[in-house]
Amino acid sequence: MSWTGWVAGWVAGVALGQSPTTLEAVRLHRSDAAALAQAELATCEQAKCPDAGRLGLLAGTLVLSDGDAALARDLLTRHAAPAPLESFHAFYLGQARFYSGDPDGAAKDFERALEKASPALAVRARARLGESLLDAHRPKDAAPVLESAAAAQPTPELLFQRAQTRAATGNAAGLRADLKSVALRFPTHPYADAALEQLAALKPPVTLTLPEHLQRARGFLSSDAAKRAEEELATAEKRGLVKGAPAQAQVALLRAQVLFALGKREDAEKALAVARKGPPAIAAEAALVVARRALRSDDNEKARKLMAALDKAYPSQAAGEEGAFFAAWLDLQGSRFEDAAKSFADYEKRYKGSRRRDEAMWFRALAHIRLEQYAKARQALDDLVTAYPKTSLAPQARYWMARTEELSGGKAASVGPAYEAVITAAPASFYALLATERLRESGRTPPEAFPQPPKQLTLPRPPELELAVALTRAGLFRDAADEVQSRVSDLRSADQALPFAHALLQLGEFGHAHVVAARYLWGRAFGSKAPDALAAFYPRAFAQAVETEATRQALDPFLVWAIMRRESAFRPEVMSAADARGLMQIIPPTATAIALKMAEPAPAPADLFAPERNIRYGAWYLSQLMKRFAHPALAAAAYNAGPKAAVRWAQERGSMPLDLFVESIPYRETRGYVKQVLADLYLYHRFYEKNGTEARLAMSVPAPTTDGVGF
Q1: Residue 431: burial class (beta carbons within 10 Å; 0-12, 13-18, 19+)
Q2: Rounded CA gap, 291 and 560, in Å?
Q3: pLDDT over 50 (residue 5)
Q4: In this structure, are residues 679 and 433 in contact, taking their beta carbons and an 8 Å threshold?
């Protein structure tokens, strides 16, 4: 999580020593942040202003992060820090002394930092104290400190440093354990290679086993270091560890995955051929790799044959179970509904312990719905909720039980209560929204999902947040975030969490408030339907920016909030594995394309963490999607999976009613995404718009235009 920080000072009505420009530069990690902070410090010193300590702390930490430890030391020794921040001042001064080559002086600073450190800072200060003592050639003093630090936070750095103290104090077993942990658990870390060198230098030397080499290779592969993974496998082979057919097959299976990652398809397929000759468990996994690749390439016919073959050849293996499930699912996607219903029914009987059995029941019901076999569909749905009453699929099962009864000719008087039960049981769900529309179509007034809208409370700020606020005012956003995370982890009940969440809302920290609510206030919000808990789940985050940009783009602002809630949970600095950034999760190439359309200079990637800019680009993009697709379901699908996919689905399945169309979206992630965005969109309308309860969801799917945004 990130602490947006600069909002906090304004909301709290406190004058900041730093200008908003400097704080924004710091928050976005801009290259000019240190220079801006030093200039403001110089101005303050000349005017003898009272903020010199706070400004000096920020300037020193920024210069330190830029790598100038000597200048950072000078800046940090020039002024005392304000009262709440002495321990942080001591910590960063210790950092500056350490990197200036003064480990003894650094150790004294870290000891001073620990005297009044908060729990979050204490973990970091203790680790650096141990490192400083070790660097000062005081391993016996460092040993107890690093034992404690590594136990609390087993990072590769601390484990490696603890290994050095264990070597110096004669703990040979502990030394080997720590070095192996670094080498095996953190293979891409620079200390991993050093750990291997030290293991090899021991007497007797410690070498890795084949399973340990494979563990390292998998770690490299998962970290996108496929070349290193390939080298690790080669090392195991050179050392003569790959003996016998089972080991050869196991290595071949992993090598195939590595070679695919390196783009060496032919070599990968040769390796798979070797793996498929191995023991059943390995052969099954190799066959599954082939089938999954066919599935990802959208070659559904080939994938169906391969999945079915897996089921037939390896019924006792996990890969065989997966093959059976996806063979049935591919029948469903290929509109072979009779085959799909039979295949899923067979799957349910043969794999009674499967974690996917409830999902198989749902897809069997969906196949019957597509065949208009509504009685059979209701029976499958009834089987589902009877066998798995707490499944996450229960709301959709109950909605479709009511819907299929209605499609079979059921009267409103009998179907209506079933729809009402869906709204009552799952008020924030897509199915509550659908049930509401179905009741309106029949002339019935739906019950209110939430009797009262969200209500933000004005409460005294918990004292646990005061240090985070002080750090924010000093521009130490990372430290503030650490403090908030630490305090959140100390919460134990909804009664503790509620004032904490509302204090965060008052500070403009919507993402942190949402995290607290999701962890502690779920039952209060969706069980008791308390308006004070709902406020943290559905805030009008960054309201001025959202409303300004929505007005400029002629866009529904509630759609912006619904997308934002699903994309980032209101966290401005979140970044995905795919490099999507900020509140609306925009990737840099898309931002560049949007900026070009808006006749703006291309943004730097870091600029996408700025809430206003991210919202501006996201609102423009959403407005273009709505112009092309004219329905929030299609716009949400396009936002998640891309316009090309949304166009294809609309062309292939657009004749279906909306509820069935959404259930038929082939991408699992996009199905869930569309359902949640639509549910949130209409909840926002009902919560915050005058006459919002009258907002209607169009239950037909419009045809998208042939032109429009395509990226």
Answers
A1: buried
A2: 38
A3: no
A4: yes
